[in-house]
Structures are given as C-alpha cells and as structure tokens.
Amino acid sequence: MRFEIVTLFPELFDALRTGLLGKAQDAGTIDVEAVTPREFTTDRHRTVDDSPYGGGSGMVLMPGPFAEALDHLDEARGGNPTRRVLLTPQGARFSQAHARRFSELESLTLVCGRYEGFDERIRGLVDEEVSLGDFVLLGGEAAALAVIEATARLLPGVLGNEQSATDESHAEGLLEYPQYTRPEEFRGEKVPDVLRSGNHAAIARWRRKESLRRTLERRPDLLEAAELSKEDRELLEEIRAEP
Ligand code: ADE
To answer: Are 54 and 104 part of one and the same domain?
Structure first.
C-alpha cells in the first residue's frame, strides 16, 4: 500500500523508517512518499501562507501550493486512484473502523497543516477529514503518523504474527484482557493461577471475562456497541454480582 503525505515537514516521516514499518518499507509492503507544498511555490521566499481576508491575527495556508503538491502526487501515481484525507481537529474522530477501511485501499494521501488554518478551498481538494481526538496539535503530522501506523499494521505481512492484528484492544470492540509473562511473582504480585493451569478452556473463559470487565470499567460506551454472545452476557452478570 502507498502512503502519500503533503506536509511542510516531510522529515518527520523519516520516523517511519524505524521498526516494523521500516521493515515493511524495505520489503515493499508499504511505500511512503512525503512531499512539501513549499516545493510548489514560485516566489523567492517559498511562501505557503498569507494573512486572512477579513483581517485578524495569524496566517492562513494558501490553496495553490497544496493543490500543486496533490497534482504532482497524482501524476507520480500514474493516474491510479487514491483517497485524500485532511488531518484536522474539525474532522470525524479517527477509529479502528477508519484504519480497517483505509487498509483496503491501494493508496492513501494524508494532507497536513501546521500552526494556522487552511484556506477553506483546501477542504475542497480532499475526500474526507479526520481528527485524532478533541485536542489541538501544532499540525496534522503526528495525527498522520498515527493514521499510517494504525492502517499499516492491518496489512498482511506487516506484523510477524497474523493473529495479533485481530487479537488486540478494539479489534472486536472490546479492550484486551490482562497479559502476564515471567516472573511468576513480581514485587508481591502473582500471575493468576488459571493462566498457569494448562486448562485452555478455563484460560479462554478467564480472558474473555477480564476483557469484558475491563471494557465495562473503562469504556462502557464500547460495551454498548459490541456484539455480545449469550456467554458474554452471563460473564457480565457474574462480574456485576461480584462484591
Ligand atoms: N491537527 C491539529 N490538531 C489535530 C487533531 N487533533 N487531529 C488531527 N489533526 C490535527
């Protein structure tokens, strides 16, 4: 899958050379191309922003250099389709469902702003707008990195173990159960006996119950939306009946 980024700070995306995403780039599973609108300016100062019409403080990113950067990417892709996503606190809240949908695409183009607002006409160049959450970053880059990581880890071959992409928190709308490794006792806290019992059915039941407990305690909103089996409902009854 191809990830394209339009950003004033393309060097931030060198971070994707690290770890599993670096390996995925080396293997050709993903391909990352960051371009800067500054390259598509025509003046000596390589200006990408200007003062707002109507007055007021701050500067506004101009549509021209962004449009040219997007045209350049379209050409480099040889006319193959992409989906353009603007990172902004005004967008729809990014979720695992977005990551799943994006991971089905051949190409995703992420458009990042910095410091200031976009000229409204930049919004007209994209297919959708996404926010990382209800807080304001200095720019869309950290959000774009998060979107790329959440999407790329769902692609076949990016995680070593195919199972892990589906097992974890949010994959089925529940939070993950607690995990333990050695030592058996750490600073007075012991690993739950059931996990050392070798009884696979009992372990699976314990994990499901703890996953439900954690979701009930921390994210009851997720539990509302989750598809629960009859056994899940029984486990929840047990949890609620506990002192
Ligand atoms: N740019 C600035 N803040 C952002 C946020 N919360 N999500 C996505 N992009 C942003």
So the answer is: yes
